[in-house]
Design goal:
Shape of chain B: globular
Order of helices and strands of chain A: EHEHHEHHEHEEEHHH
Order of helices and strands of chain B: HEHEHEHEH
CATH topology of chain B: Rossmann fold
Strand content of chain A: 15-25%
Number of helices of chain B: 5
CATH topology of the largest domain in chain A: Rossmann fold
CATH architecture of the largest domain in chain A: 3-Layer(aba) Sandwich
CATH class of chain B: Alpha Beta
Helix content of chain B: 25-40%
Number of domains of chain B: 1
Oligomer: heterodimer
Mean pLDDT of chain A: 95
């Protein structure tokens, strides 16, 4: 899932200081599962903002809205009537949700209530950890299902560095060494031989450096009249 | 003659004295029964305490507490079982963690965190319920009326 966390109330309030009516919109997918943008978080943020502004003597009307998925057009359509009644929309979605809302409602200011952090999973109740950086060239087949891109501070591909101490990374005592785990897993699977092969430099051209990335499935695209034949 | 320095300059206080309103979220297995016992024993506690019965303090959501303050409560009391005595094992411990979160949220909003407090008692502790509830009402009284008191609600959903 995409993991996000709420911005400090002060930061959100600052974005809204010139508005009198805002619609807070939650998202029922990733950010609901990580307890940052569900209906409850929308209610809590809306109540907090209303109280803060009332105390400051500049009341703010905060409506509450919810969609199943902010990152898909179809789910945003039911918001259209609600959005008309507000000066701005406050998205409790990830950065994708904010941008989809902004594109869908071009005449309305859309503001982020969350900081989008990473793609990850809950490792225990109340704790989420990063697992994927979307490098565009997955190597998990070679590393026993443990990602050296997202879990090794140096993104190494040929074993641990000298900062690996008793299975712990030198950057933070709470961070396990990814390569220590990869080796232990390979031992358990009887696959240590494969790790002896030198992995050449990774092709990072599929990663973030080239700007906007796009995936195209021609077979799924709507047929375009001008390209139709016969 | 009243010393002018002792007059609290708040609208509620100057309009005939400040009578705090404290919403008490009480677990039915302990604090709710303790409040009942206090009544049975003729042990008074302030009328400021407005009890909401819960199946367990673990039922409390952060939104419930925020809405209590938004609706004008001057204080909130969460009354749950003694540590280790929760009928649902850890409900009272979850409530304690949520209260810590609420204290941070109240600070961000501009309200004093001390307006929200949790107490842990058993069903047999009627006298202690009355004492602790009175203590919290006095804390809230000292803090003065909530700045959100008596203001028109602004829910935001247009008619």
């Amino acid at each position: 899932m995409i993991v996000a966390e709420k911005k400090p109330l002060e930061a959100v309030a600052r974005m809204l200081e010139n508005y009198d009516r805002v619609l807070a919109v939650g998202c029922g997918t990733c950010v609901t599962v990580c307890f940052s943008g569900s209906g409850k978080e929308v209610a809590a943020l809306a109540a907090s903002l209303r109280m803060k502004r009332r105390i400051e003597g500049t009341p703010l009307a905060v409506g509450e809205g919810m969609v199943q998925r902010q990152c898909e057009w179809e789910y945003l359509d039911p918001l259209a009537d609600q959005v008309k009644n507000y000066d701005a929309v406050l998205s409790l979605g990830c950065g994708v949700g904010v941008q989809t809302l902004a594109k869908r409602f071009p005449g309305t200011r859309v503001l982020p209530a969350l900081n989008t952090l990473f793609m990850g999973l809950p490792t225990e109740q109340g704790v989420w950890e990063e697992r994927c950086q979307g490098c565009g060239n997955c190597v998990l087949d070679k590393t026993g299902g443990i990602c050296p891109v997202s879990r090794c501070a140096k993104q190494l591909f040929n074993g641990p560095c000298g900062g690996s101490q008793n299975g712990v990374c030198e950057v933070d005592a709470t961070v396990p060494c990814a390569w220590h785990m990869i080796w232990e897993r390979a031992e358990a699977l009887g696959m240590t031989e494969a790790l002896m092969e030198i992995e050449p430099a990774k092709d990072w051209s599929t990663s973030r450096d080239g700007g906007l990335r796009r995936m195209v499935r021609e077979d799924l695209r709507a047929p375009r009249e001008e390209t139709k034949e016969g | 003659m009243t010393n002018p320095d002792t007059v609290i300059a708040s609208p509620a206080a100057t309009a005939g004295g400040f009578h705090p309103e404290v919403v008490a979220f009480c677990c039915r297995h302990c604090a709710y029964a303790a409040a009942d016992l206090a009544g049975g024993k003729r042990q008074p506690y302030p009328s400021a305490i407005k009890i909401v019965e819960l199946p367990c303090t673990g039922r409390i959501d952060i939104v419930n507490i925020l809405h209590a303050f938004e609706d004008g409560a001057d204080g909130v009391l969460i009354a749950g079982c003694l540590p280790g005595s929760c009928h649902y094992i850890r409900g009272n411990l979850y409530a304690r963690q949520r209260l810590d979160y609420i204290h941070g949220a109240l600070k961000e909003i501009g309200l004093e965190p001390a307006r929200a407090r949790m107490i842990n008692i058993s069903a047999a502790m009627g006298v202690q319920f009355a004492e602790l509830a009175s203590e919290h009402v006095e804390t809230v009284r000292a803090l003065g009326p909530s700045p959100l008191r008596g203001q028109a609600q602004e829910e935001g959903n247009p008619a």
